[in-house]
Write a structure and sequence with these properties.
Elements: H1 3-7, E1 11-14, H2 19-30, E2 35-39, E3 54-57, H3 64-72, E4 81-84, H4 87-95, H5 111-118, H6 120-129, E5 137-140, H7 143-152, E6 157-160, H8 166-171, E7 177-179, H9 182-192, E8 199-203, E9 212-219, E10 225-237, E11 243-249, H10 253-264, E12 270-278, E13 285-292, H11 299-304, H12 309-318, E14 334-336, H13 338-350, H14 356-362, E15 367-369, H15 378-409
Parallel strand pairs: 1-2, 1-4, 2-3, 14-15
Antiparallel strand pairs: 5-8, 6-7, 6-8, 9-10, 9-12, 10-11, 11-14, 12-13
Length: 410
């Protein structure tokens, strides 16, 4: 460890294998924060970053992350700040916080708040009580629930798990499925019912990718909002039911006020995120989902817009003066995942919904890239090589299938 690290608390970035983990490490390192990262997949392309002093692989077992943190704690001269970057690591840290709080800054709301907001069943019940607008939603635990939902919902709808399990992530081709008819819903449920203990189906809110708005924020220990940032999607991949490939900052006072109202009502602490969709027909906003206690893909747009969201949390945790960049100026900062956005733009261009001029104009402005970095380029090229390898292996498999079919026909 270098001399600076001995004097300054570390940030522990948990989930470096994800783009959110990579971005979080880069943002904090740019502020001079020493970084130790923890991952369950050290071979992931995001783990090829050069901004971390150390990368620790979690040991096997359900409490592997907690044991890794306990093993690391005696080496720390000052309490590090934890940055869990996935839903599952937020839940683990929250549930085992008594084993960690003496050695680490754990900036999360109370355990019951974490459980309420991260459990979609509890969250939607809470949202209804608070008068927050949510799409019509059914939770599916068996065939009776499926038939009840099929009879009462208006299609199209989206199907997803309340929490994306490792099995869902490994088997599903997309984060959520858009379903056109009740029969398609029944067929899809039969395919993926075993991928998660509970599934949920929601009515589709009419509108394009650009109707998806989000609020990233940070609340201190007194449940005061220290910083907030509003953005919206421009494109996503896969289209309509994927994750953001291009986002931009914007102003939406309704989204800001409703997000702060949601978190203020439950004595919130830590990083928070709420995504809304504005109905194209009525103009009404509906909450799509919250993310609790962690950075998100769009946290980096805040940094591009001069709002030091993640660094403000670090400074608040260790008792340093807050940074100056706390107020959104509503400029034109953007976030882009280049590979995915080329895919999305090509799709919309082929469909006639995006011209080359519109595509070029959409890229203008100060940008923060999801993977590419001039000073940390290896993750980008590792991702590119990985995707090229998948494409080549896919072509070989298709060629082998065609050859086998020809031989069989002969």
């Amino acid at each position: 460890m270098n001399a600076q690290s001995k004097q300054q608390p570390y940030a522990i970035v948990i989930g470096l294998e994800s783009i959110v983990g990579l971005q979080t490490a880069r943002i904090l390192a740019a502020h001079g924060v020493p970084i130790i990262a923890i991952t369950d997949d050290p071979r992931a392309y995001c783990c090829r970053t050069n901004v971390c002093e150390r990368i620790i692989t979690t040991p096997d077992g359900d409490d592997g992350l907690i044991r890794a943190l306990e093993d690391l704690a005696p080496e720390m001269s000052a309490s590090p700040v934890l940055y869990p970057c996935t839903d599952m690591t937020v839940l683990q840290i929250s549930r085992y916080r008594e084993r960690l709080e003496d050695c680490y800054h754990v900036l999360l709301p109370a355990p019951d708040v974490v459980e309420t907001l991260m459990d979609k069943v509890n969250f939607y019940e809470y949202a209804e009580k608070q008068g927050l607008s949510i799409p019509k939603t059914f939770f599916l635990r068996g065939r009776e629930d499926v038939e009840r939902a099929a009879e009462q919902l208006s299609f199209p709808c989206i199907l997803k798990p309340p929490t994306k399990t490792s099995e869902w992530l490994s088997k599903a081709k997309v984060g959520v499925y858009k379903i056109a008819t009740a029969d398609e819903f029944r067929e899809l449920y039969d395919i993926c019912e075993g991928w998660a203990e509970t599934l949920m189906i929601q009515e589709w809110i009419d509108g394009s990718d650009g109707n998806l708005f989000s609020c990233n924020c940070y609340f201190n220990a007194d449940s005061e909002p220290i910083v907030s940032f509003i953005a919206r999607k421009v494109r996503q991949w896969p289209p309509e039911a994927g994750t953001s490939s291009l986002g931009e900052e914007c102003r939406n006072d309704f989204v800001l006020e409703e997000s702060l109202r949601l978190f203020r009502g439950i004595s919130y602490q830590g990083l928070g995120y709420v995504e809304f969709k504005r109905d194209e027909r009525t103009g009404e906003h509906y909450i799509i989902e919250p993310n609790i206690g962690r950075p998100t893909g769009r946290s980096a747009i805040a940094e591009a817009g001069g709002v030091e969201l993640l660094y403000a949390m670090y400074c608040d945790a260790i008792g340093w003066p807050l940074p100056s960049g706390l107020e959104q100026k509503y400029g034109n900062a953007k976030w882009i995942y280049w590979r995915r956005d080329f895919q999305a733009a090509l799709f919309y261009w082929r469909r006639g919904d995006l011209s080359l001029k519109e595509w070029w104009q959409s890229l203008r402005g100060k940008k923060r890239c999801a993977v590419f970095s001039w000073t940390d380029p290896v993750p980008f090229f590792a991702d590119l090589i990985r995707v090229l390898g998948l494409l080549l292996s896919g072509r070989k498999q298709k060629g082998a299938s065609r050859s086998a079919a020809t031989i069989s026909a002969e």
